[in-house]
Amino acid sequence: MVHDARKSKRKKHHVLIRLLRIVVALYLAAIIFALSCENSMIYFPTRYPNGDWTLPDRVQEVSFRTRDGETIVAWWFPAENPRATLLFSHGNGGDIIIRAGFANKLRDEGYSVFLYDYRGYGKSTGSPHEAGLYLDSQAAYDYLRNVLQVPASEIVLFGESLGAAVSIDLATRRECAGLVLLSPFTKFGEMAWRAAPIPVGWVLRSRYDSIGKIRKIHIPAAIVHGTEDTLVPITMGHELFNAHPGRKQFFEVARAGHNDLVAIGSEPILNAVAFVVN
């Protein structure tokens, strides 16, 4: 009897060790997979010559260099007697040409728009990564200030999804009039957890810690978020809103998801820009 009990105990012990080894192996595999596929899971660029690169009326294509030597291409939509100039940092998919229609709409409302492509998007050189996107936004801002001679007091950082994280970072580094954030997320680790609830965020290179940075920003901010956003939940928008210490307003867009926010919520977006500018 005693011998059988000991044998049974050893068997259970071996089973537990085997299970533990399997769990550790699966976890290590998840870490390796996350590291190897990190960038391909974040960035979905469209590259030139895909798409229609015909310049819209009264739009100028410009290019400039980043501090680390990449060439960034942007479209400049100047308005007559602009109410403000929007530095448009777009989301993680596509390129500037699919945002040109909305940029035109913003110009029709009296705003100049500087819409640029990150490295690795459209005609811009290089490959996207977090530190690189921050350098791209800084170079775009510096071009606005130094070449186009737009005063800092007239520049509003306008960020869409991933571009919201880029805009928040830029607001900690450059003077500007305000922030407009569409469908922003709190930080990349929380987005990774939503995509795959496995604790691998600590090994990822990408941080995009918007929730930590927005606490340091005191300029006016407006957040626009769809109530039906299943990719970036509206609760993340509210978390960022609550963390921001400055003048702010939150605009909920009923029935809007992540990818149709601009189509459904153009009026709230315009109201958000007007709130920051006024």
Walk me through this protein's architecture.
With 278 residues, the protein is of the alpha/beta class. Helix content is 42%, strand content 19%. It has helices at residues 2-42, 100-108, 130-146, 162-171, 188-195, 210-214, 234-243, 261-264, 266-277, and strands at 44-45, 60-65, 71-77, 84-89, 93-94, 111-116, 155-160, 178-182, 221-226, 248-253. It has an eight-stranded mixed β-sheet with strand order 2-3-6-4-7-8-9-10, sandwiched between helices. A two-stranded parallel sheet has the order 1-5. The radius of gyration is 23 Å and the shape is globular.
Count of folded domains: 2
Percent helix, as a range, is 40-55%
- What Rg do the Cα atoms give? 23 Å
Strand portion, in percent?
Answer: 15-25%
Order of helices and strands: HEEEEEHEHEHEHHEHEHH
* Class by alpha and beta content: alpha/beta
Instruction: Determine and state the CATH class of the largest domain.
Output: Alpha Beta
